[in-house]
Amino acid sequence: MAIHVLSPEIASKIAAGEVTERPASVVKELVENSIDADASRISVDVRGGGIEYIRVTDDGTGIPADEATVAFERFATSKLDVADDLESVVTFGFRGEALPSIAAVSRVTMVTRTRGEDGGTQVDIEERTLVNRQQVGAAPGTSVTVRGLFRNLPARRKFLRSAASEATRVQSVVGRFALARPDVSIGLSIDGTSSFTTSGSGELREAIAAVYSPQVAEGMLDIETPVEDEAAPNAIGLIGRPSLARSNRNHLTLYVNGRWVQNRSLTYALQEAYRGFLMERRYPIAVVNIRIPHSEVDVNVHPSKTEVRLQQEGRVFAALQRAVRQTLTANLPVQELSAPATRTATPNNPLDVRSYWPVAPPTPGEQSVPDNRADVTSGASFPGEQSQLAPQQPLIPHRALPALRVLGQIKTTYIAAEGPDGMYLIDQHAAHERVLFEKIKTEARGGNPSTQGLIEPATVDLTPEQIEIIESQISEIKSLGFEVEAFGGRTFVVRGVPSVLRQEDPTESLRDVLDLMAEGGGYESWEERAAYSLACHGAIRAGKVLSFQETAELVRQLEQCSQPHTCPHGRPTMIHLTAARLEEEFGRRG
Ligand code: ADP
Ligand code: MG
């Protein structure tokens, strides 16, 4: 066939297919329009799974009578003026494609009225043709009714599931909006029966009670990381106690700037944060909104707009994971962690390493956390702070690393190792950061930092701000392993540094730590950040050649860590390729 431009009719059907895949996607577009129109009340009615009938009614701005039909023209939108706006889209809509697309595959009736008008306007459109337009009595707002979805597209209709299954999808879509916008009262009714209605009070917990259940709402924990810096990514919302865990990820709802997103890496960050709190293949309930400056999000990736591109995914990942992890460790009484349950052996998590592992079985006890190694993630573990955990109580269970056999270094950056269930690739810098971080915290807590005395003491001139910190926090600085004395004026003498920093410039390290402390607390305690900073400074870099002994020693130390799977910033320290995965990849089994 010769190349030709598609007829407008076919082109619009193709475009329509992208926006309107199934009833749930139509509902999504209509509810987004209502929210964009500042509605405070939205009700959704579906019948026959939405294939027969969908109606979305709102009390928003309405559309002026003379624009009611324009709204159905392709690329007609009131939301985007100049291409520049694409950089910082804050409304859901912006393409002007939804209404025309829906109208291309169904019969649509819209009734709308602005607050300034006396009466409403009704338009009826059948497969893109205006068939009726009249004035009607109506309350301010808009109501869009969609009937006979895909009646003219039997091929697409064939792909729909049963009415019940389509209704379930509609339910999760509407639920996600209700959880994203507790300030809007959102109701759903399916085949005439009310499924839920949120109050619109603005309380997320109330919305969760309506959409899930009051019991679930009660078991949710507020994410407890005060926002330190508005310009940095931060996570807010509620996360479920481990006891509320589900067997799939359907209750794990993530938003970026209020827009629901599907993002594997963020989902993974959230799940990782629950590591040690949940059994294998159990997933948390969570409703989390990640706030990022609009300019750092690209929503213009796909018409359905559930994918977003984040410019600083690593930072977002870390912020999310840290927020969730801190909330869990700060809130959960030890007994709720049900240590034995999380340590149940599964094929992926063999507890009895010996039966799987022919080389160097760990001695009994090595698999459990020594008592002196208290939780390192709570941030409440420095001298003078109350520890959340009473001594001698069982510690936060974690998924310990099995004993690993080191194979060698790859690209002078990763360490390849074999474990009882497959292969591990370990990031040497991240792993060392984790090791140092735990060591620094343990030592600081014990008031017994390991210090490296300098053969030649170094002098350093400090700023007034740095001096103030040194004078007010000298004991904390010493607890990290610094030995510093005033020398007169702005000059100080450094006689010793934390031993993890023995390779670093002593005066630079001191300045860095003082600057960190000067930034104040907030997000996490400065002690925690000082430990991050020291660990990061002191950790071996990527690109450093390590001897076999050094790699083996590093891995051995990582095995001893209480949170070996992530670096202190929340990034993974390792990738685990299970034996099953390897077999699958090599086509050794079905
Ligand atoms: P978009 O949302 O991308 O602008 P749509 O096709 O979904 O495109 O809607 C086209 C226009 O119709 C919107 O820009 C808006 O001006 C108007 N509109 C649609 N639905 C509503 C509504 N529920 N309330 C008020 N205006 C609406
Ligand atoms: Mg829209």
Low-pLDDT regions: 82-89, 334-398
Which small-molecule species are bound to the chains here?
adenosine-5'-diphosphate, magnesium ion
How many beta-strand elements? Answer: 22
Quick one: overall form? elongated
Strand content: 15-25%
What is the radius of gyration computed over CA atoms, rounded to a whole number of angstroms? 29 Å
Secondary-structure-derived class? alpha+beta
Strand order of the largest sheet: 5-4-3-6-2-1-7-8
Structural overview:
- There is one protein chain.
- The chain has helices spanning 8-19, 23-36, 98-104, 154-159, 163-180, 204-211, 214-218, 264-273, 313-331, 339-342, 353-356, 428-445, 464-472, 474-479, 506-518, 526-538, 548-560, 579-585; strands at residues 41-47, 53-58, 107-113, 120-126, 129-136, 141-147, 185-190, 193-197, 220-222, 234-240, 252-256, 259-260, 286-291, 297-298, 309-310, 405-410, 414-419, 422-427, 451-461, 483-488, 491-498, 574-577.
- An eight-stranded mixed β-sheet has the order 5-4-3-6-2-1-7-8. The chain has a five-stranded mixed β-sheet with strand order 9-10-13-11-12, with helices on both faces.
- It has 18 helices and 22 strands.
- Residues 82-89 and 334-398 have low confidence and may be disordered.
- Strand 16 and strand 17 (414-419) form a beta hairpin.
- The protein is α+β, with helices and mostly antiparallel strands and 590 residues long.
